[in-house]
Amino acid sequence: MEFVRTGIDGVDGLFSMNGYPMGNSILVLGGPGSGKSIFGMQYLYKGATVYNEPGIYVALEETPKKVERNVASFGWDVSKLSEEGKITIIDATTPRIKEVDDDVVRSGLGIDNLITNLKEMVEKTGAKRVVIDSLSLIAFHSSDDFELRTKLIRLSVSLSEMDVTTLVLAEASSNEIGTSVFPPETFLFDGVIWMVLDTSSQERRLAIRKMRGTKHVLGAFRFIIDDDGIQIKA
Amino acid sequence: MEFVRTGIDGVDGLFSMNGYPMGNSILVLGGPGSGKSIFGMQYLYKGATVYNEPGIYVALEETPKKVERNVASFGWDVSKLSEEGKITIIDATTPRIKEVDDDVVRSGLGIDNLITNLKEMVEKTGAKRVVIDSLSLIAFHSSDDFELRTKLIRLSVSLSEMDVTTLVLAEASSNEIGTSVFPPETFLFDGVIWMVLDTSSQERRLAIRKMRGTKHVLGAFRFIIDDDGIQIKA
Amino acid sequence: MEFVRTGIDGVDGLFSMNGYPMGNSILVLGGPGSGKSIFGMQYLYKGATVYNEPGIYVALEETPKKVERNVASFGWDVSKLSEEGKITIIDATTPRIKEVDDDVVRSGLGIDNLITNLKEMVEKTGAKRVVIDSLSLIAFHSSDDFELRTKLIRLSVSLSEMDVTTLVLAEASSNEIGTSVFPPETFLFDGVIWMVLDTSSQERRLAIRKMRGTKHVLGAFRFIIDDDGIQIKA
Amino acid sequence: MEFVRTGIDGVDGLFSMNGYPMGNSILVLGGPGSGKSIFGMQYLYKGATVYNEPGIYVALEETPKKVERNVASFGWDVSKLSEEGKITIIDATTPRIKEVDDDVVRSGLGIDNLITNLKEMVEKTGAKRVVIDSLSLIAFHSSDDFELRTKLIRLSVSLSEMDVTTLVLAEASSNEIGTSVFPPETFLFDGVIWMVLDTSSQERRLAIRKMRGTKHVLGAFRFIIDDDGIQIKA
Amino acid sequence: MEFVRTGIDGVDGLFSMNGYPMGNSILVLGGPGSGKSIFGMQYLYKGATVYNEPGIYVALEETPKKVERNVASFGWDVSKLSEEGKITIIDATTPRIKEVDDDVVRSGLGIDNLITNLKEMVEKTGAKRVVIDSLSLIAFHSSDDFELRTKLIRLSVSLSEMDVTTLVLAEASSNEIGTSVFPPETFLFDGVIWMVLDTSSQERRLAIRKMRGTKHVLGAFRFIIDDDGIQIKA
Amino acid sequence: MEFVRTGIDGVDGLFSMNGYPMGNSILVLGGPGSGKSIFGMQYLYKGATVYNEPGIYVALEETPKKVERNVASFGWDVSKLSEEGKITIIDATTPRIKEVDDDVVRSGLGIDNLITNLKEMVEKTGAKRVVIDSLSLIAFHSSDDFELRTKLIRLSVSLSEMDVTTLVLAEASSNEIGTSVFPPETFLFDGVIWMVLDTSSQERRLAIRKMRGTKHVLGAFRFIIDDDGIQIKA
């Protein structure tokens, strides 16, 4: 089995094989402001600049322009990497606007379009890394739990057929450590990473709660967001 | 990237760039009496009087007259600023009365009218700052979660197309610190500010829980409401 | 802005302007036996006997006769004040009986009748103070949340059009201090007063949680119910 | 106003006027085995044997025979009092069996029959005291909350028209002290008495949480069930 | 009134009359693995071998063969007692399989068949003791709460007409002491016995929470399951 | 009665008869990453390599290829055992994809196909051990609770007719010790094993909460996942 280096300071060392098992789909859970989107883009940025692995960012919540702007303060020139074909941002916000026509939203057509677009782009760019931001928006577009689950199964099966290692970002309803009820769809993923903010100590922490195909450390590790992005502190 | 000064004593210093990233939509959450409406009007007042940035207050809960009256004790002459075109209050309570006809409410027509009116007024006044008071009333008019989410996506997309920095006020179901479950729509916003009242210490506190495009401090900061409005205490 | 004196011992002093802002609609929340009804009637009684302001008591839960009887032990002769036109009790229990015919209840006709009756009576008596006892019964008659919210908006808008300062009594599901989840309709009101019973210390407490248009103290204040009614203790 | 002596050792002294205000409808809440049924029958027994006030026991849960048997160990010969016309047990379990025919249950016909029977029996026996055992069974027969509330309003209005002082027994979902969420229909009653079992100290306690028309003590009082029934301990 | 000896070591002494009041229907609540089924079979076994009272075990969850196997390790030869007519196991799992045809399940026909079979068997065998294992499976077969409640009322009324003392076993959602929310149907039973496992002390405990017609001790008593079955420890 | 050795270090000794009662269906509950799938495969691997008992792994969540890959790091060559007919993986993910056609999913046809396939395979391979991974996916495919329960009863009855000892894996919503609310379908199983991660001590623990037909230890036992798989630590 091969393993994917995240390249994020201190994260790879949390796994016995120094990275994610290649091909895994990993759920990244965190409350508002927990740093999920930064984590996702840093994974693609390191892939593009250090490991020569192209990546795709599926932007469901924000326009590509805003996605680029949000990480500009870390000195990550996503716009340039995009021109070089190393990071591709799929603008899934445009279909979002169209989807607000009720019939389309409810038919689930949206998820199939998304999967088709993603597949084409993976083949075209040779991407090895995918970030989907976010599962919450897919859930938001689903009229009931059954529809959401059907969409998730389609997405999960499709991702397992592409040769990519994926982070799926999802908003948790709490930002505190110790609130540990998992969303019911967790078992569809090969891994779960939890990013939280301990409001009493004012510290950010990251914990790996599941990772199929490798052993991993069990604790919650302090991390900071500084001028270079996310960094695990010893 | 440009940044917007709130002008509220002690708030701008909580962000590494001394203000909100321009263009952000920010959710201001707080329980009853937490000071959300004062925070929102103070943001517009400072914009109008200190930074020469016109603003719009979308009054869904109260008539413009009552909105003006509520902040009169701080010496903010909103009526005069309104005549000068520096603060415009959109009276969204009149449509509210009309909307109680069941068909209109359920059709979601209301949100489109609101967006259209807001767009026109932004263009006409050159407003840079918008306050929507409140999301709770929009939710109140929605017959189910799916309708609310559809409205929120329309509003969110529309706000991102206007060149404004927006505060959307929302009532939390608790006024206590430590009750930190976020409403599910939080991820649609670029930022989240939480205003709470610690009932044991009888102190008001404000915390930034998320702000895309800038680093920010993590703690909860004591603030007071005195004769000049809101003020962060060291 | 003008302010209304409650005349209840120790209550007016909790507000920076010594009373409620005139025209406010205030939610009075409390568990069973918390003293809400006594608070409401004392507000009308003081208005009628001390400040020469006529009042209206909308009795949804109990017949006027029972309302009068319940406060007789405080020496408040509501029957006499009623004859003098200083306190008017609207018997909204009679329509209540009629409303149990399913069609009428579900049509929401009830709330419109109530509003119409209240308006007429305000004009006729020159009432400045209104007490609605209780919101819980209005909720009880609503077949779903959407119907209730529609009723509340109609009531809220109508109250803001009359020139009265209103207390709306509502039953909380707990009588303990520290249980502080607010009902979702709270934001429709200009103020919230919470009356609780601390079962461990066996003390009654009152707290102002919101009051638009005036500053107020933040703490919870001990009160007693003695032979003269409600009284805040220092 | 007149007051009704319960005659139960130590209970009357908890009210400033030594008893319930005559005409009140009082909810007696308690978990399984809390002693509600014993409290109810003791109230009737004392009325019949000490105060010469006839009483009616509406037996919805158990047959009259079982009701009599359950209190036989206290030496209360209900059968004899029944022959003397001092205590009448209305067997509401027979209609219960009939009501399991779906149409009848859902029509709400049951509650009207019950009210009619109760009225006739009150007139016939001159009863001053009524016990309804239990509200839980009425709820059990209701297909939704709206139907239940409609039934409760009919019952509540009807009881207020009869010249009786009523205890309505209701099963709480917990038997512990400190679990103090009230059922939503509480506000329809003039009083609430809570009977609980403190499982840590293994002590039974009784608390008055509401009583219109009289002041009452606020604490929770230890009681025992011994050979004479319920008895408050100092 | 007569009383039934359970014959289980230490249980009878928890009641002032050394046993259950004859004719009572008793709910035995406990989490998975709490020992409910063993308690039920031990009650029948002791009845058959010590008190010469035949018993019936209604096996809804498992086949009679498996029921017998499960208690074989205690040396209870249920198979032999069955041949002697002292313990009869009604196989209610066969109808269970048939019932998965949707129409039959939803019609509630199942409960009537069960009652009819039970009545016939009680008459035929002269059974004095009945165990129904379990209420949970009856609930499982009910499409909504209303259907379940209708079934329970039919069962409750039918049991009260037979001359038997019944244990109805039901699975609680927790196995811990201190989780004491009762299921809503509890009030239909004359008694409630709670069997729990204190996971911190790793001790099993049994508590009587209600028993009509007799006084009982209030505490929770430690018990063990050893080679002879259940045994209360002093 | 016969007993099945798991062969997992330290697990068999937790049962008084050194293993599961043969024929039992056992629910293995745990949060994401608790080690359920490893436990399941280790049970089959030990059966195949130590006890010469063939096994079947019903893979609903992942393709057989991924299942094999996930345990490769323990040195378990499932692929080879599969060729030798000692472990058979039923690929239930292919029907999963088909099932996303709405009609098929809702008809419950899926579960019958699964049962039929499993029966055939048990007969063909002489399997004595079955692992179903996972119940959560079956629940995921059910449009409501009633459908799920119907499926579970069919599965439960079918498993009891085959001569196999089965582990059914199910995802719990929490990974913490002390969160002990059981899912409602627990009583359909003969045993319950709980696998949790104590996040404060960073230790994994395993507890047996129910096992029909044998006595078992009550505590929660620390285990580790090392290069050889799961191992209970003294």
Class based on secondary structure composition and strand pairing of chain A? alpha/beta
Beta-strand proportion of chain A: 25-35%
Please tally the helical runs of chain A, counting DSSP H or I stretches of 4 or more residues.
Answer: 8
Number of DSSP E strands of chain A: 11
Largest interface (C-beta under 8 Å): A-B, 36 and 34 residues
Biggest β-sheet of chain A, characterized?
9 strands, mixed
Oligomeric state of the chains?
homohexamer
Shape of chain A: globular
- Order of strands across the biggest sheet of chain A? 5-4-6-7-3-8-9-10-11
Helical percent range of chain A?
25-40%
> What is the chain-wise order of helices and strands of chain A?
EEEHEHHEHHHEHHEEEEE
- In angstroms, what is the radius of gyration of chain A? 17 Å
End-to-end Cα distance of chain A, whole Å, is: 28 Å
* Uncertain residue segments of chain A: 97-108
Mean pLDDT of chain A: 87
Question: Would you write up a description of this structure?
Answer:
Six copies of one chain form a homohexamer. Chain A is of the alpha/beta class and 234 residues long. Helices cover 35% and strands 26% of the residues of chain A. Chain A contains eight helices and eleven strands. Chain A has helices spanning 36-49, 64-71, 78-83, 93-99, 102-107, 109-125, 135-140, 145-161, and strands at residues 3-4, 20-21, 25-30, 55-59, 87-91, 129-133, 165-171, 191-198, 203-211, 220-226, 229-232. In chain A, the strands form two sheets. In chain A, strands 5-4-6-7-3-8-9-10-11 form a nine-stranded mixed beta sheet, with helices on both faces. In chain A, a hairpin with a 2-residue loop joins strand 10 and strand 11 (229-232). In chain A, helix 6 (109-125) packs parallel to helix 8 (145-161). The longest helix of chain A is centred in the middle third of the chain and has 17 residues, at 109-125. Chain A is globular. The two termini of chain A are 28 Å apart. At the A-B interface, helix 2, helix 4 and helix 7 of A face helix 8 and strand 9 of B.
